[in-house]
Amino acid sequence: MVEPIIDHITVTVKDLKVAEPFYDKFLSVLGFNLKHKHKGTVAAHEFDVVEYGHSRLLFAIVSPRSVFKEETIHRRKPGSLHHLAFKANSREEVDNLYLKIKETGANIVDEPKFYPQHGESYYALFFKDLEGIKYEIVYEEGRVI
């Protein structure tokens, strides 16, 4: 039976050279080891890629196709990623990751706090990368997974 486990995530960024140093720092904070980082080009699909390997998830950033180079990123456009949330193991871990993520140059949207509109014990941090892609670190006590 198939389980709803994500194998890999690929995010298109406007400028790979600008985004790469940010993702090096950000993904290191999440436990990715840069010795498992690989770069390449996929000519058939017209993109360059930087892949970050982890035993639980492959995360990649790719360059846009040339026809989309001037497009702006907006999470509310059809077909766009609204935001991506990473699970923490405790509120303390959310708080510690907040301090580390601040050091990456991320734009902090909302500091760690409770969000009762999402659940009684929903504790999260929201931030954006250098290009405006929104991420979340969340802990929810008692959540069945």
From TrEMBL:
Top-level division of the source organism's lineage: Bacteria
InterPro entries: Glyas_Bleomycin-R_OHBP_Dase (IPR029068), Glyas_Fos-R_dOase_dom (IPR004360), VOC_core (IPR037523)
Segments forming domain VOC: 5-140
Gene3D superfamilies: 2,3-Dihydroxybiphenyl 1,2-Dioxygenase, domain 1
Alphabetical list of Pfam families matching this protein: Glyoxalase
SUPFAM superfamilies found in the cross-reference section: Glyoxalase/Bleomycin resistance protein/Dihydroxybiphenyl dioxygenase (SSF54593)
Matching PANTHER family: GLYOXALASE FAMILY PROTEIN (AFU_ORTHOLOGUE AFUA_5G14830)
Designated name of the protein: Glyoxalase
Organism name: Maribellus comscasis
